[in-house]
Amino acid sequence: MSTSTGLEKDSTMSKRRGQFIASPISGQEIVLLAVIAILWLLLWWATPAFLTAGSIQPLLIEVAPIAVIGIGMTLVIISAGIDVSVGSAMMVCGVVTARLLVESGISLPLALLVAVGIGAVLGAMNGVLIAWGRVHAIIITFGTLNVFQFIGRQIFGSETVNGIPPTLELFGRGEPGRTFGAPHSFLLMALIAAAAWWYLRQTPGGRHYYAIGGDHEAAELAGVRVRRRVLLAYIVTGALVGLAAIFTIAKGTATLDQSIGFGKELAVIAAVVIGGTSIMGGRGSVLGTVLGALLVQTVTSGVTQIGWPSQLSDLFVGLFVIIAVGADLLRQRARRDR
Amino acid sequence: MTSTPAAPPTTAAEPPDNGYDDKTPRLSSRMIRAVLTQREVLLVILTVVVLIWMSALSYGGYLTGPYNSDYLSASLVDAVPLTMLALAELLVIVSGRGGIDLSIGAIVSLTGMAFGFAYGDWAWPLVVAIPFAVLVGALLGAVNGVLVAWLEFPALITTLATYYAYKSLALVINAQQPISTPEIQDLYSLTSSVEIPLIGHNIPDVPLGVFTFLIPVVVAVWLLLQRTTYGRRLFAIGTNDVAARWSGVPVAGTRIRAYIFAGVLAGLVAVYMTGQFASARPDAGTSGNGLALPAITIAVLGGVAITGGIGRVSGVLLAALLITWLNAGILLLFEGNQGTQLQLLALGAVLIFAALLNSYTTRKYGGTR
Questions:
Q1: Average pLDDT value for residue range B288-298
Q2: Which residues in chain A are contacts of B305 at CB distance < 8 A?
Q3: Which of A111, A271, B29, B130 is 20 to 30 A from B76 in CA distance terms?
Q4: How many angstroms separate the CA of residue B164 from the nearest CA in chain A?
């Protein structure tokens, strides 16, 4: 950095800063769109059946639960936290809802209320322990991962929940689950994503999350109620986990087994990080997360459609995460050096 | 954070000034402080409580089997891999800057498969196959180390990504099939119990792995941390890596080696577990919730500060014994599936409790030591 061009640089910098905030879509998101497009073209070339409604609709249905949890996880990670307990929490929400559907025959609104409510309570547990216990989120949620799994398995009792009635078919794979060919679960996810996108970009409350992730002490001194915000982020994540559990039951068969939610935390965290949200906090967007979820699910279904062993998809997701983190670090360095 | 922990003999290390002047603290408050800041004291008390409680239940006939010294000694079979992996986490967490290794269980799986191929399929001699497994472990650890230390990736997300990558490779490499050729099955003798010479007939037989794996590793890690320049540097970069850099410590190199050592320990665990199961399983370290979780739990319970720079081998060792004997007791207290599920609950609850306790002691007394 030479001093002679300092002034010029300053003015371009502020201009660029302004654009960075105002632009509705960031560089990472354009790159992601391009990568997804290339992957879809490659898959289409490898298996021509890929780009048909019969193949895209299931893909969108699979994306919905990951992306919907990812919206909450984006809030959590922007505020420099993390939640690895979402898979186990989803198991608890799923099994309670499924058993109520079978044994009490509850209606769809009630099922939604139960699942979202339980999810919010589990999220609140995480949030209280993290915000008031002053322990790093990874440790707390690692612990609650086990506790939730214990609770879930206790409620499962025997091996599976059988004979789930088609109450949730509004979000299912069948004809009642679609409007003009688009799955309802995906549409609802998109609606929530749009709301969260608006909240994070346009409202003071949303901007507070970026402030907390950037420097939580500075945010506290600037008058942000850090603990309340953090607690809210985990509660929202929990509630969305409940919604994802509904989607998952709806897209499944009449039988729910104990594998529900297992390992979902990776898919979600990968989606968020691939979407350009910085794991160190302070930067990120919901739009990126949705695209990230689309990419993760494309890789997962692509691997099986080509006929490779399905376990291989974890390898590719892991590599994509490392690439995304690397890109984030490069961006950060570029910003620092400018 | 406090300074790097002193060598164990210095007992009267003063906690930092906590704001008020108490010249003669009462005995009770001194004891509370000792229990909270000397993690070993707390762990010994808890272990004794667990042992007495379980023995009482056993005496009263509430358990499905006897909880006696033979059973406790036999359950050390499980303590061997857990302690070694917890020591691996100790090294990585102490190295600071959010250091953690979530991929450790996946390294065990993948290295175990490599060992299975070398020893079981290609019939390499054991003296070549074991170093080969250790080398593979070191290599996988080095991948983490290079990403985290050189390229300054956050450890949490990096090792989460490599966890899935290694786990996936371990499953795909032999099409999800375990390797259990006769050579591998013979390795089961590694975990048999032996009578200790001279005093052996007075005390229960101890699993062989305690002598061949656990004790050498514990001694080596203790020497590494307390008696070498490398150990001092590791604590230095974990406490404050900017200060360490200014005092001429090669920060990246030191940190990379912490991840490599963790990989080496995981490689040894892979060999041990291959013997324990009498087969090289592709999910040896990743089945269920994997081995990383108990390893991290034991490290945190043993007083390792997640922020880096604080941690001792003795604490980790005692925490591993506590968890092992607690788990062994739970298995006798509740039959079958219920028992394994309660172990999940116990592990999770203990992790949260230990982390909250660490955070509280750090705030009140300036940390465990």
A1: 84
A2: none
A3: B130
A4: 5
